[in-house]
């Protein structure tokens, strides 16, 4: 598996308060994929993402990743977590400054990534002047500015209205193609998962683990017409049935 960016093998996570968040979780993420972790709230999706990002350490099992340089992993949280006193440009520049990227290069990369996410005209704006969708674009731009090979996204669009969510889904697919970034995307929406994914990992809770994987094969042509197509609805039905099987495993 020379193209594997992350391999989780028999991973478990138990917190200090005794909560067993994950057990026997197995997942391989390969270069170029967009993998969605699909499951109900509280099933450990976010914990799995934090383990991949090395923000948490596993209690058991192994996580194998290639040697990482600063900036090779980007993380987009559920909330934009922007600095309210800083402009859009300064928020996007933050990781580049922390990495001590030369100022001229940092400004160029900041401008490039803001153009990619549709923020070129908002460089001097402040977070409170932006809509929720625009603030999330800033968060995505900040994560992309260091040019990560792996982008981790923790339900970033969950709080947005459907139209904003659809637009950002399309923008994310465009960015993935343009930047050749591998993405692991956490969601509890079947429709969002199927629309975005090249592969879906179904998670069950108590404790969290992956019970089934669904490859979106052959790849679906993403676009406005897809959401009403028979192929899309068929994959959504398959994902829903897999979730139901996962939920059945949780019942005593």
What does this structure look like?
With 252 residues, the protein is an alpha/beta fold. It has two domains: 1-72 and 149-238, Rossmann fold (3-Layer(aba) Sandwich), CATH 3.40.50; 83-147, no CATH class. The chain is 37% helix and 24% strand. The chain is built from seven helices and nine strands; from the N terminus they run E-E-E-H-E-E-H-H-H-E-H-E-H-E-E-H. It has helices at 45-52, 88-98, 103-116, 132-144, 162-179, 190-196, 230-250, and strands at residues 4-14, 20-30, 34-38, 60-64, 73-76, 150-154, 182-187, 199-204, 209-215. It has a six-stranded mixed β-sheet with strand order 5-6-7-3-8-9, with helices on both faces. Strands 2-1-4 form a three-stranded antiparallel β-sheet, with helices on one face. Helix 2 crosses helix 3 (103-116). The chain starts with a strand and ends with a helix. The mean pLDDT is 91.
**Cα-to-Cα separation, first versus last residue:** 37 Å
| CATH hierarchy, class of the largest domain | Alpha Beta
> How would you describe the shape?
globular
Mean pLDDT: 91
How are helices and strands ordered from N to C?
Answer: EEEHEEHHHEHEHEEH
- Largest sheet, spatial ordering of strands: 5-6-7-3-8-9
CATH H-level name of the largest domain... which superfamily? P-loop containing nucleotide triphosphate hydrolases
Number of helices: 7
- What number of structural domains do the residues give? 2
Computed Rg: 18 Å
Q: How many strand segments? A: 9
CATH architectural name of the largest domain: 3-Layer(aba) Sandwich
Structural class: alpha/beta
């Amino acid at each position: 598996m020379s193209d594997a960016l992350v391999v989780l093998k028999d991973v478990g996570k138990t917190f200090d308060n005794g909560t067993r968040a994950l057990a026997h979780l197995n997942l391989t993420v390969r270069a170029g994929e967009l993998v969605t972790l699909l499951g109900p709230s509280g099933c450990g999706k976010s914990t799995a993402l934090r383990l991949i990002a090395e923000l948490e350490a596993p209690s058991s099992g192994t996580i194998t990743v290639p040697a990482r340089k600063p900036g090779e992993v980007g993380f987009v949280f559920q909330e934009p977590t922007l600095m309210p006193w800083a402009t859009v440009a300064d928020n996007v520049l933050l990781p580049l400054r922390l990495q001590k990227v030369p100022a001229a290069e940092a400004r160029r990369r900041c401008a490039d990534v803001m153009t990619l996410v549709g923020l070129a005209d908002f460089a001097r704006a402040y977070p409170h002047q932006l809509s929720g969708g625009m603030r999330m674009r800033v968060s995505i731009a900040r994560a992309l500015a260091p040019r990560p090979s792996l982008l981790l996204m923790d339900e970033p669009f969950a709080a947005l209205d459907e139209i904003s969510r659809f637009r950002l889904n399309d923008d994310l697919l465009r960015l993935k193609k343009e930047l050749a970034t591998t993405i692991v995307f956490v969601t509890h929406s079947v429709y969002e998962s199927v629309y975005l994914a090249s592969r879906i990992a179904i998670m069950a809770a108590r404790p969290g683990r992956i019970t089934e994987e669904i490859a979106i094969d052959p790849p679906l042509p993403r676009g406005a017409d897809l959401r009403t197509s028979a192929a899309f609805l068929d994959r959504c039905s398959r994902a829903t049935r897999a979730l139901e099987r996962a939920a059945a495993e949780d019942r005593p």
